[in-house]
Design a protein that fits this description.
Layout lengths: L1 H19 L1 E4 L3 E7 L2 E6 L2 E4 L5 E7 L3 E11 L5 E12 L2 H6 L4 H18 L3 H6 L1 H16 L4 E12 L2 H96 L3 H17 L11 H27 L1
Antiparallel strand pairs: 1-4, 2-3, 2-5, 6-7, 7-8
Helix pairs in contact: 3-5, 7-8
Amino acid sequence: MALIIVLAVLGFFLFVYVAAGVRIVKPYQRGVVERLGKYKETVDPGLRLIIPLVDHMRIVDMREQVVDVPPQEVITEDNVGVSVDAVIYYEPTDPQRLIYNVANFILAVTKLAQTNLRNVIGDLPLDESLTSRDKINIALREILDDATDKWGVRVVRVEIQRIDPPPDVMSAMHEQMKAERTRRAVVTEAQGRREASITTAEGAKAAAILEAEGSKAKSVLEAEGRAEAVRKFAEAEQYRQSAVAEGEAAAIRSVYQAIHDGNPSNDLLAIKYLETLQKLGDGQATKIIVPTELGGLAGALAGVSELLERSGANGRTDAKT
C-alpha cells in the first residue's frame, strides 16, 4: 500500500514536471528560450516543449504598442515656454535584442522622446511650432527610430497631442487672431463693395450702350420707314398722275376721234369757238387771251351769220306752207 502511494506521488510530480515543460506561443507572440540563463533560441507561435528547471521561455508581444509621453515644459526658439505631450507607436522587430539590449524599454523610449521634443521644438518659433506638427512628428520619428533600432524596435509614428502656450500668450494670440479676423472682414467687405460698384458701373454702361443701340436702331428703322413711305407715296402719286394723264389722253383721243368720226363743219366749229369765248369771259381771271388770227375769226362769224340766215329762211318757208 505504501508502495502504491509512493508511485502515485511520483506519477503526480512527473505529470506536473512534464506539464511545466509545455508552452503555447500565440500567433502575435514570439518565445525567447534560455537554458541555464543563456540564450538558446527564439521560437515561433505554436506548441513548444522545454525542459523545466533547465529551460526558461520569455514571451514577447510582437503587436504594435503605444507609449504615452507625459506633458513637459519646452522652451521655443523665441523663448516662450509651452507644455507638450505626445504618443509613440512602435512594434518589436527582434525579441532577443528587445529583452537583452534594454532593461526598461518603456522608460527608455519615454525619456528619449522627451529629450528630443525639447531639441526639435527648441529650434522652432512658437508660431511654427503650433502650425508644423507634421514636421515635428516626422523629425521625432526619424530620431527615435534610429535610436531604438539597436533595441530591436521600429518606431512606426509619433503624434504630438497638445502644445499649450502660457495663458498670457494664449490671450495675446486670441487678440491677434481677433484683430486678424477683423482685418480680413474689413478687407473682404471693402472688396465686396468695390466689386459691387464695378458690377453696377458695368451694368449701367451696358444698359447705356444697349439703350443707345436701341435708339439708333429705332431711328434707323423710323428713317427707313419714312423713306419707304415717301417712296410708296411718290410711286402712288406717279401712278395717279400717269393714270390721270392716260385717262385724259384717252378722253382727248376719244373726243377727237368722235369729232373726226362726226366730220364737223366749219359752222359747228365756229359755234364751239364762240361758246368757249363766252366761258372765258365769265371766268374770274383778270386777263383774257384772245387769238391773234382775227381773219379766221371773221370768216367763222360770216359762216355763222350765213347759217343763221338760211335757218331763218327755211323757217319762213315752212310757215307759209
